[in-house]
Q: What sequence folds into this?
């Protein structure tokens, strides 16, 4: 289309700098679209180092191989592509092949040429060790993030030369701890090691490696805990998972380490299925600087079926130490154990109960929930309680994972009647589809909901599979404190349907397509790439 | 208090087409460009310095800019670094309303905000354009902004191929 008026300004009259400012607002999908608008825009985008640094397609490069595809061919076409665009993030996946060793030269060449010394993030996933070493060597100056997911192997490391990764900030390793023998990362801030095979050997390697790191702030260890009595770093976050039987020295080593990190440590997260949590708590209780403590463990060593996990937040104020409790329970729970725990931590604020389908009326009846602010449960089968038996007077948020049948829907409403001041109701998934239209949740039961939940201001149904439950009709007519309704539906037509239902209502309505949200999520985050693996 | 020297003295600016506008020093200092100029004049020169000529801003646009700076004169202005960290989700309703204008005016406003170095105004106005572009197809973008389509179908096909995310399975 030609311009009608000569004096009219056109978007293309804006300078390159300003156009780039505008493009900077966009994510990868939109930028991809912009390239097709006109040649100037394309050239501008491709030549901008700022935009190509964005998590767009220009810097993500992922390779997956399947055994039946000719690798030679693939490698060539990929090299071609990698020359065109300055990729910086790489994900190499499943490069194993029966004859991968015979392709040693090709692979090495490929690794060198595709990454070409400018890779900032690399994730290796099931890749032969020699390729990993090659990739690290070539990019030793540029690497910021490195993740290696391979099983422990007997492969001997093909080099003894130490590689200095001086810019590496994040290192995540799954099982393959031998790599720690040959790399040096003086500026590492975030280190995770998942699963340690052959602990005795691994702990030695790990200890040596950690002693040369001075800047680690975030540390995640799994399965075993070495005696770390002479480290130079001061961490802020510490995640630890203990699952192995042979962790006898755990408490001792843990105490030594915790004492050395006393000044800096803020967040501590321990998942543990071996050690009695009270012992851990004893160690932690000496630790007063902690802001957040997340503790998941068995409550009783001798009773492994009765798993109990606790999760509490410690906050230090100037003069008092607050013990806030965030309980999280997995598996079958013995109610008496649960009650015991609640008594130990009287100021529960956030409670999250999972995998608990039994009647937990007993617990509720005996424990004191007057400080509880949010309650999250996945679902329930029965509640044998009366209003006067419970005290949830400060509960503000009530979250339930799933409402899958009429009974749960009714119980949900019954639960709400226990919470006089609840403001926010969240249902993660609403899958209840009434077979019979007559049986729809409507009329009296919804009326009851709003009689008891009269202070409810927000209702969120994150994933709603059934739109026909008469809920909306009622919501539309009623007059209450409800201000916001958030619904996630699976189809675009349903978005329109919901919007039409609420046409003209004062309620703030947010309807989204949750599936779209899932599929359109784009990220250069390797966590995301990992999920996309075959 | 010194009566002769009001805390926020009057300042005049002249647009490229010769129209004079009066505003206050506090407002005009939101413009990095003018701030630099005034600092150059030095202490005490403000009252006597006369009208500031702005050769790259026409009267229509200058009027809009002055409306904005006068509204925001008491707000703390973020630096361009701070603006970069901002999410594009929330803006002040007054600004939202203020930016309801023709594209033509908006382009002029962007150019002026850039020239006058008013980071917040530049951010707001470029964001406005970005919001218009968002969620549109290339064809829609072209017709909205009157951009000539200079791609041949063959070329666009080639570009599409080239830009496929390099993910091989």
A:
């Amino acid at each position: 289309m030609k311009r009608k008026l000569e004096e009219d300004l056109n978007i293309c009259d804006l300078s390159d700098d300003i156009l780039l400012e505008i493009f900077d607002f966009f994510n990868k999908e939109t930028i991809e679209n912009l390239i097709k608008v006109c040649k100037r825009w394309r050239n501008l985008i491709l030549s901008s180092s700022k935009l190509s640094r964005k998590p767009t397609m220009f810097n993500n490069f992922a390779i997956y191989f399947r055994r039946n595809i000719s690798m030679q061919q693939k490698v060539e076409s990929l090299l071609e592509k990698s020359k065109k665009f300055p990729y910086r993030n790489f994900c190499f996946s499943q490069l194993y092949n029966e004859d991968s060793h015979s392709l040693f030269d090709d692979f090495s060449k490929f690794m060198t040429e595709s990454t070409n010394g400018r890779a900032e993030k690399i994730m290796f996933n099931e890749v032969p060790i020699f390729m990993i070493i090659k990739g690290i060597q070539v990019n030793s100056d540029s690497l910021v993030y490195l993740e290696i997911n391979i099983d422990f192997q007997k492969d001997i490391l093909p080099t003894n030369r130490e590689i200095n990764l001086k810019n590496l900030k994040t290192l995540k390793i799954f099982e393959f701890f031998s790599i720690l023998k040959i790399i040096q990362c003086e500026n590492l801030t975030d280190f995770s090691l998942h699963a340690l095979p052959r602990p005795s050997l691994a702990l030695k390697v790990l200890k040596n490696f950690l002693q040369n790191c001075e800047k680690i702030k975030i540390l995640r260890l799994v399965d075993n805990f070495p005696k770390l009595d002479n480290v130079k770093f001061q961490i802020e976050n510490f995640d630890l998972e203990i699952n192995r039987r042979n962790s006898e020295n755990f408490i001792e080593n843990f105490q030594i380490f915790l004492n050395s990190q006393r000044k800096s440590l803020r967040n501590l997260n321990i998942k543990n299925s071996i050690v009695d949590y009270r012992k851990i708590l004893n160690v932690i209780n000496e630790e007063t600087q902690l802001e957040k403590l997340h503790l998941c463990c068995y409550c009783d060593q001798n009773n492994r079926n009765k798993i109990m996990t606790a999760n509490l937040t410690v906050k230090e104020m100037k003069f008092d130490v607050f013990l806030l409790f965030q309980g999280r329970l997995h598996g079958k729970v013995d109610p008496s154990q649960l009650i015991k725990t609640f008594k130990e931590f009287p100021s529960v604020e956030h409670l999250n109960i999972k995998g608990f389908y039994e009647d937990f009326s007993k617990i509720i009846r005996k424990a004191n929930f007057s400080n509880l602010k949010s309650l999250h449960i996945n679902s329930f089968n029965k509640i044998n309680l009366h209003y006067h038996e419970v005290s949830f007077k400060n509960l503000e948020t009530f979250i339930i994972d799933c409402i899958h049948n009429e009974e749960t829907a009714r119980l949900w409403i019954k639960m709400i009647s226990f919470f006089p001041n609840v403001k926010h109701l969240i249902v993660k998934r609403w899958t209840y589809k009434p077979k019979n239209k007559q049986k729809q949740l409507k009329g009296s039961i919804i009326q009851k909901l709003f009689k008891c939940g009269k202070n409810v201001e927000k209702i969120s149904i994150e994933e709603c599979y059934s739109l026909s439950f008469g809920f909306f009709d009622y919501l539309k007519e009623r007059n209450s404190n409800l201000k916001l309704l958030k619904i996630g539906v699976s189809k675009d037509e349903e978005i329109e349907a919901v919007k039409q239902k609420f046409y003209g209502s004062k309620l703030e309505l947010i309807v989204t397509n949750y599936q779209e949200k899932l599929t359109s999520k784009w990220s250069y985050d390797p966590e995301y790439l990992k999920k996309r693996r075959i | 208090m010194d009566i002769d020297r009001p805390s926020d003295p009057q300042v005049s600016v002249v647009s490229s087409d010769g129209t004079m506008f009066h505003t206050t020093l506090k407002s005009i200092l939101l413009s990095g460009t003018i701030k630099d100029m005034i600092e150059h004049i030095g202490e005490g020169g403000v009252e006597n310095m006369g009208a500031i000529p702005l050769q790259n801003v026409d009267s229509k646009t200058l009027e809009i800019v002055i409306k904005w700076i006068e509204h925001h004169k008491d707000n703390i202005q973020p630096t361009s670094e701070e603006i970069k960290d901002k999410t594009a989700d929330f803006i002040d309703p007054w600004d939202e309303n203020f930016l309801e204008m023709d594209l033509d005016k908006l382009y002029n406003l962007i150019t002026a905000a850039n020239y006058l170095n008013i980071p917040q105004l530049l951010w707001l106005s470029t964001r406005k354009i970005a919001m218009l572009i968002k969620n549109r197809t290339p064809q829609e973008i072209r017709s909205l902004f009157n951009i000539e389509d200079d791609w041949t179908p063959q070329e666009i096909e080639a570009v599409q191929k080239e830009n496929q995310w390099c993910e091989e399975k």
In short: Strands of chain B lie at 10-14, 20-24, 52-53, 166-168. The CA atoms of residues 14 and 20 of chain B lie 4 Å apart.
